[in-house]
Design a protein that fits this description.
Elements (H helix, E strand, L loop, with lengths): L3 H10 L13 H9 L2 H7 L7 E2 H8 L3 H13 L3 E4 L9 E4 L2 H5 L9 H13 L9 E3 L18 H6 L4 E5 L1 H8 L9 E6 H9 L3 E3 L2 H13 L3 E5 L6 E5 L5 H7 L12 E5 L9 H5 L5 E3 L5 E3 L9 H4 L6 E5 L18 H7 L3
Antiparallel strand pairs: 1-3, 2-3, 4-8, 5-6, 5-7, 6-9, 8-9, 10-13, 11-12
Length: about 350
Amino acid sequence: MASEIYYQLRERIDQYSVGFAATESGIEIKILEKLFTEEEAEMYLNLKLELQSAEDIAKKINSDPKVVEELLQRMTEKGHTFPRFPKKENEPFYYAAAPYAHGILEHQLKRMNKEMADILEEYAQEGSVTRGPIPLRTIPVNAAIDNTTRVAPYDDVKKIIARKDRIAVCDCVCSVWRQTRGENCDQPLEVCINFDFYADYYVGRGMGRWISKDEALEVLDKSEKAGLVAQLTNSEDPEAICNCCPDCCGMLRGYKKLTEMGMAPATNYFSQVDSELCSGCETCIDRCPMDAITMGQEDIAEIDQISCIGCGLCITTCSDQAISLVQKPEDQIQVPPGGSDFMRPSVEFENDLKQ
C-alpha cells in the first residue's frame, strides 16, 4: 500500500492549474510513486507556486540550506519544480512548485520511458482535467486569415510573437509520449514554442533551444503544412504556443470524446463552405482534425459548426477557395483572462523576486 505522503502530495497538486484528480483505479498514485521519493514528496509540500530560495525554505522547516538545495536540485532534474536560474554571479536558484500540467507532465520530455508513458496514458483515459478555466485556446492558423477576417490582438499569433522578448522551441511531449508507447506518428516533433520565463526553463534544462521571432514563424508554417492545430495558453499574454497533433494531443483527444466538440475549446471562429465554389474534392475531410466535415447532398462539403474548433486548417488546402473563416457572434466571443492558472504569467515570477 502506498505511503500516506503520496495521498497528501496528490491533494496538494490537485489544487494547482487543471488539477490532479483521484481515480477509481488509483493510477495517479502510481505516477507519483514513480516520479517522487517520499523525501521529495515531503519537500514538495513545502513549495509554493511563488518562487522561493532554498535558504528561505530551509529557515521555515528548520533544516540545513545545503541539504535543501541538493534535494531541490534533484527534484528539478526530475521535473518537480519550476526553477529560476541565476542571472548573475553569486545569485541563488529560486524554486516554485510545478503543477501536474503545465508542469510535471511536460517536464518528463527527456525522461519518458515505456512504463511512464503507459501509466500516463491510463491516467489520461480516466480523465485528469478537473478544475479551472479552459487551459488552451484554439486560434486559426495565420495562412487561413485573409483581409476580410477581423482578428483580435489576443488571437493574432504574429502580433503575439512580435512582442515577446525570449522565445524557445522544444519537442511536443504528447507526441514523444505516444511514440514511446510504440504508436506511430510521423508529424514533426519540434513544434512547441515557449516564451520568457518558460523559455528560460526549457533552454536551461536542456529540453529546448533559443529561436528568433522569424524562426518561430517558420515553426508555425511548418506546423500548418503538417496539419497541426495551433493552440495558445488561454490568457491575454500567452506563455506558449502548442502546435498539436490531433492523434497525440491529450487536449484534442479529450475534445473528440465530447458530443459537441467545438463547444469545449476556447475558440472565436468557425469555418463555412461556399456551396457554389466547392467541387467536392474531399481534401478538407482528411485535413479536419476534429472530423467535423462530411460530404452532403450533391457532393458538397458540409461543416458541423458544433464540432468545428476554428483552426482554419481546412481553408489552407482548399484549392477551390470554397472555405472561409467566420468570427462567431459577439455574444459568443471568448475574451481570454488576464492571466492563466495553466501557465503562471512570466511577469508574476519576476514580481516574486521583488517582494
